[in-house]
Amino acid sequence: MAMYEIPRNTKGEGRILYIFSTKALIYTVAGMLLGFVFKWLLGLIGKNVTTGVANVLNGIGVFFIIFLGALGFILGTFKVPQIDKFEITRKAAGVNLDTVVKEYIKFSLKKDKYYTYDTSDLIRQELEYKEKEVYNYKVKCVKCGQTFYRKRLNRNLTKKYRCGICGGRFDVFFLTKSC
User: Fold this and answer.
1) What is the distance of C-alpha 147 from the center of its chain?
2) Which DSSP string corresponds to 124-135?
3) What are the beta bridge partners of residue 166?
């Protein structure tokens, strides 16, 4: 009798205090430390003013600690969402927010340089129709218009399969042979 490994759910094992991944914890602590620096600076200002103003400055310092800690948690945990209405979120969907911030800082520090951006890898290009090959069928997505060619046709293609880009149905066209 053979032994088999039983798969187990390891999703939460890398987490600290259930909500913090290691990276999120580091970013949260760094944000809170920055908040403590602001609170300390406001405390120095608060020593020279009346008690009421000092209490307000103390409250503002605590707000900075909480706000910057939450901002660090968000940067360390969340990714850019995919919202089809906005072009930037379509292109950057799934990228960690801290990566976006790091790249922005790197880009803004190099103001005197010019960059060119090759978008050819970002654009969905249709498969090229090779003239040398003999194709019998042209398959086109109803929604997005993606086209591809087939030599043989799976009879379940229109019933069972959907477009990988948009989830639309396929139309199949028979290509006539010119002799």
Assistant:
1) 27
2) -PPPP--SSS--
3) none
> What 8-state DSSP symbol labels residue 102?
H
- 3-state class percentages of the chain: helix first, strand second, coil last, to nearest 5: 45, 10, 45
**Selection from 27-36, 50-59, 116-125, 157-166 with the highest mean pLDDT:** 27-36
pTM over 0.85: no
| DSSP-assigned beta bridge partners for residue 79 | 96
The torsion defined by the Cα of 19, 21, 91 and 118, in degrees rounded to 10, comes to: 170
10-51 pLDDT tens trace: 555 556 666 778 888 899 999 999 999 999 998 888 888 888
Asked if residue 64 lies in contact with residue 15, where contact means CB atoms within 8 angstroms, the answer is no
Residue 95 and residue 84: Cα distance in Å, rounded? 15
| Token digits of residue 95 | 């990228």
Whether the CA torsion 161, 163, 168, 169 is positive or negative: it is negative
- How many CB atoms are located within 10 Å of the residue 68 CB? 20
Cβ atoms of residues 42 and 58 within 8 Å:
yes
Going by pLDDT thresholds of 50, 70 and 90, the confidence category of residue 6 is: low
pLDDT tens for residues 133-155? 788 888 999 988 888 888 888 88
149: left (phi over 0), alpha (psi -120 to 50) or beta: beta
Q: Which helix (H) or strand (E) holds 160?
A: helix 157-160
